[in-house]
Write a structure and sequence with these properties.
The protein is α/β, with parallel strands linked by helices and 215 residues long. It has six helices and seven strands. The protein has a domain at 43-67 and 90-179. The chain is globular, with a radius of gyration of 17 Å.
């Protein structure tokens, strides 16, 4: 399946053509009544973080929203790293929210807190190694303060499911960070139904990740 986010548009409204009808419907019928569920199309989407062919894949819901995100819009280096991620272009930290140059972003602090122990356990150059070894796939690629189940109707979500199934097929360690994924992808705890050797872990059991598979 072709990456629909490649060569993404350069100016706001930041939305894929395939998603325009959905986002317009959602904000008219949901977002205007609950601002926390409004889709923030003034921000570049973050449908995935990291290289696609990696040993560990994390399955998350969607990028959150903080007013501090808007302060990054003029940051040319941050926007460049985000766009390289969408295009799957080479960069020093493919999981760009672990790039020290992006330490001013809310996303950097969110991920660094959650991966700090793993980075420490990997050892020398741990942050860069982890950034080369982890992919996070968002079920809905656009920013919002709160999740809404209607986000599952966005056409671009099919690519998220494709990335998750690819990870299972190649035998990656797959960590479902949010239970919503269990209704979207064909795998069961401990043994996926797609792919013979992959390992799926529930949100309650992320410790099954082996550091030896990170390098």
């Amino acid at each position: 399946m072709q990456n629909p986010w490649e060569h993404f548009r350069q100016t706001p409204h930041f939305v894929l053509d395939m998603d325009k009808p959905f986002t317009a419907w959602h904000d008219q019928n949901k977002g205007q009544f609950d601002p926390a569920k409004r889709i923030h199309l003034e921000l570049l989407p973050e449908p995935f973080l990291g290289r696609h062919e990696v040993p560990v894949t994390l399955l998350n819901l969607n990028p959150g929203f903080s007013p501090d995100d808007q302060a990054l819009l003029p940051d040319a280096d941050f926007v460049a790293s985000l766009r390289k991620n969408l295009d799957q272009a080479t960069q020093p930290y493919p999981f760009y929210l672990l790039d020290p140059r992006n330490s001013g972003s809310p996303g950097y602090h969110w991920w660094h807190r959650r991966l700090r122990q793993l980075i420490h356990d990997v050892g020398d150059d741990g942050q860069r190694i982890v950034a080369y070894s982890i992919l996070c796939v968002e079920l809905f690629g656009y920013h919002s303060q709160k999740w809404d189940d209607n986000f599952l109707k966005a056409p671009s979500g099919q690519y998220a499911l494709h990335l998750a199934e690819q990870a299972l097929n190649r035998g990656a360690i797959v960590v479902a960070m949010r239970r919503k994924w269990f209704g979207c992808v064909s795998f069961e705890l401990g043994r996926p139904l797609v792919g013979p050797t992959a390992t799926a872990t529930s949100p309650a059991a992320p410790t099954q990740m082996k550091h030896t598979q990170m390098v």
